[in-house]
Amino acid sequence: MSATSELRGLRGRGATAKKENKAAFWFLLPWFLGLLAVTLGPMAASLALSFTDYNLLQNAEFTGLDNFTRMWGDQRLHSSLGVTFTYVFVSVPLQLAMALGLALLLDRGLRGLALYRSAFYLPSLLGASVAIAILWRTVFGTDGLFNQGLGLIGIEGRGWISEPETALGTLITLNVWTFGSPMVIFLAGLRQIPRMYYEAANVDGASKWRQFRSVTLPLLTPIIFFNLVLQIIHAFQSFTQAYIVSGGTGGPADSTLFYTLYLYQRGFGNFDMGYASAMAWLLLLIIGAFTAVNFWASKYWVFYND
Question: Domain containing 40: what range?
């Protein structure tokens, strides 16, 4: 009887598990459909179009690797890559340094910490929006607020977004300003560092700078690595800021011609959708390569406290 009861119990649990799996399948079905229709389907279509000559008005004509070979002689593509690499390599380290510095300041237990955290995080929510890009163009215009502020102290301003020497710098400043998201992650990581390490360092007579170098930074390297990977991917995909600030041209003199903006111009300005699709896959390869290098290099500088 005991064996029979146990067998019935196993069958009952098996039937319950099947019902739960079926329910889980139906709940996940909309997500799978969305993944197929919104992500995997368009990716497969763009991959197919990258080997064709397609202008949205006529049927696609297969051209093989012609779109990829054309990239070698496209000087504007090379210029856009240079602008994008400069933007990524300058803005991301500055953004992470700003985020880490403020996280260290907030970690001291200031009054109204939640208010400060929300205020600093807000630019990250709005930084890629059209409204903030328009505001940035207004602030750094010839008669903008920044030049007005300089005028109050007797310094003559300039057209920060209308001159090639400074236009990209304004976009880098905008990206650095959106430090809130990595700052919150840094703050969470700082809260996870055991206080006993700092107490031991104090006993050994270590200064605050020494504690930062020998305790905080090593134990925070997984968080730094996480933020670094995310922010590099995000920076490569930046589009709205350059489009709004430059009026969609990438000017002046292509100084703000991000790779994504040039991709948009070729696809929706020139209706060269096959070439734009090939550019999109090149961007995917570039981001994938940088991410792979970051993961490979992380084993030499990221410390996991097991």
Answer: 2-49
